[in-house]
Design goal:
The chain has 147 residues and is of the alpha+beta class. It contains four helices and six strands; from the N terminus they run ββααααββββ. It is elongated.
Length: 147
Amino acid sequence: MIEWFEDLALGMHFKSPEKRLTRDDIKRFAAEFDPQPYHLDEAAAEQTPLKGLAASGWHTAAIAMRLFVEVRPFGPHPLLGIGVDELRWLAPVRPDDVLHLEGEVVKLVPSEKKPQGLVWIKWTAFNQRSEPVYTFTPIGVVPRRPA
């Protein structure tokens, strides 16, 4: 069980539960946060480079964040971060796609001044066909084990 920075190791892997996106989910998010035709109107979406209705990339990012929280890679500690490296949208996310995350610890740096460490976990979101659709590498702040 992961409880402290010292419990993390390079190469450690995580996998999230799944989340299905519906047509209504895609349109609801887009209407509020990214009102572009390829996220809202199926006929208009067919005429865009996406060739059909697709979730906003920010919707995909929000779902990935939710799945990241559900994994609890830092044990009981909140997910605090200082940034995100290498965020990429790789493929459109469509209605009825089922997403999950897989992550790997790629870097660990203990703080020399604070009782914490920084951890980089490279996450990839996959759809139900095991196709990668999104990647991001957040930089997390994790408390160190008390002396």
